[in-house]
Amino acid sequence: MKSSTSPLLSQINHTIDFKTKPLGALGLLEDIARQVCSVQNTVSPRLKKPHILVFAGDHGITQEGVSAYPSEVTYQMVLNFVQGGAGINVFAHQHNIDLTVVDAGVNHDFDPQLPIIHHKVNYGTENFAKSPAITIEELEKCFVYADELVNKLHQNGTNILGFGEMGIGNTSSATMLMHKLLDLPLEYCVGRGTGIDDQTLTRKLHTLQQASDTFNTQGNPLETLRTFGGFEIAMMSRSMLTAAKLGMLILIDGFIATSAFLGAVQLDNSIQKNAIFCHQSDEKGHRLMLKKLKVRPILHLSLRLGEGTGCALAFPLIQSAVNFMNEMASFDDLNDLGATN
Predict the structure, then answer these.
(1) Domains in the chain and their CATH numbers?
(2) How many helices (H) and strands (E) does the chain have?
(3) 302: number of CA atoms within 13 Å, CB side?
(4) Nearest Cα to 276, choosing from 36, 24, 13, 15?
């Protein structure tokens, strides 16, 4: 019977297995190295100009009292990103990762001189408890902006791109995407988001269930994204698709970013080979999301911050996987050394 293993994969496996270590001794790092090599079509991979995009947007669903924080926190956090005071700023700086903040739809007029990408589609989405969150025209605008962003980064040499977000209320959107796209009962998907109390959690579940009953988008990723998503989630989802098509590695953060990936992968399942899942969030539904995708996250640190922080924290381990491929000696090297002595 003919083997289905490609010559490249055989070469990658040989390179990994003949490093100076027991077989499989580097565990998950070997899987990461194998994935990076496969995406880059080489046994000598490189991570070039690592970059994280943080998309920010507001959500009309916050009018229903489903979050612990008011929507004003979204724009305040964007200003915090600009000033370098957020968690993602700290970790991106630590690991020499470039960071770009994108105003996808924040309900605030930012100074045009601020060092952010001004791609505001609207001042927050509609309240999906009452009507679809995003219009067809707005969704198309999200996609155009996403393509523009990612193509520019690719042209500048970036080959590994992380995705983060900021948006009060976006765990409700992510919950609905999970519920509809994975066809799971809502109670398996809904969590505490920003840390809501029991009373708010009950209200959140009731509100989302009513919205689910009102809008039947099962089996249609674009319509699900339009009905329940956010501008930041829609832009992120399209950016993942575009980056993967350009051959970039895509780093998936937590619950919100994975919900965006769900929409993307249902439109093109080939992008999963490019996706590295950086951590398992402490948000209730994320573990189940990852299980349904049949992927293993790099970290499990009980994070639930968003912002792309999981991507930044996982990056040095991805770099370690690349470094051992390029720098660690092989038994073939030792044999050559012995032959010359």
Answers:
(1) 51-323 (3.40.50.10210)
(2) 14, 6
(3) 0
(4) 36
**Collapsed DSSP state (helix, strand, coil) of residue 55:** strand
Identify the three-state secondary structure at position 220.
coil
Residue type, 304: R
- In this structure, which amino acid lies at residue 228? F
pTM comes to: 0.94
Lookup: tokens for 312 = 């930044």
Question: Are 281 and 231 contacting, i.e. CB atoms less than 8 angstroms apart?
Answer: no
Distance CA 108, CA 123 (A): 7
What string of H, E and C letters represents the secondary structure of 308-331? CHHHHHHHHHHHHHHHHHHHCCEH
Is the separation of the CB atoms in 168 and 69 below 8 Å?
A: yes
Question: How do residues 217-264 score in pLDDT, each as one tens digit?
Answer: 988 999 999 999 999 999 999 999 999 999 999 999 999 999 999 999
User: Which residues are part of the catalytic machinery?
Assistant: 307
CA dist 110 and 77 (Å) reads 12
Q: Using CA atoms of 289, 278, 325, 100 in order, give the dihedral in degrees to the nearest 10.
A: 130
C-alpha distances in Å from residue 218, one per residue of 47, 169, 177, 184: 38, 22, 10, 10
DSSP state of 274: G
Angle between helix axes 255-267 and 170-181 (nearest 10 degrees) is 40
Give the bridge partners for 55, in sequence order: 102, 165
> Angle 286-293/255-267 helices, nearest 10 degrees?
30
* DSSP symbol at 156: T
